[in-house]
């Protein structure tokens, strides 16, 4: 008597169980739900199909529990056609409770601290790491000098905050998946 996997030509080890498929579909629905909670400007930066963009925009119109559940199933179905890894990475960076967000934020803080250390080579290192910041070289220098003056005079760190925002713009442009910029403020 022959084995089932030999008769059909399928390896049972390679196939996903029905439970595994359901878990993956629920994960896509959950990711879709997280996408509905993003700002429109954040959604614009994601590489989504037009159908999914429309479905995400329509999700807020569904108020009945059953209708919303059906709609989120539809969003989950549309999510199968997307680059899930890039979308997940972007959503994780926006989620302040994720480790990816914390790492990203700490990296920007380290750059700010390095720039404010008083070492002129740190600005060049930043410009080497983020070539897009070269256009803001003068603004970076001014903010660094202003922040140093504020620190010496024991004033509130307004320039250091502005410097951090400018660093954030350039780091986000270079490092967020797909070059997405972070609109979180």
Automatic annotation (TrEMBL):
Stored SUPFAM superfamilies: PSPTO4464-like (SSF158710)
Species this chain originates from: Halopseudomonas yangmingensis
HAMAP family: DarP (MF_00765)
The protein's name: Dual-action ribosomal maturation protein DarP
Subcellular location, record wording: Cytoplasm
Compositionally biased tracts (Acidic residues): 1-14
Keyword Phosphoprotein: no
PANTHER family according to UniProt: UPF0307 PROTEIN YJGA (PTHR38101)
Region described as Disordered: 1-23
Protein family per UniProt: Belongs to the DarP family.
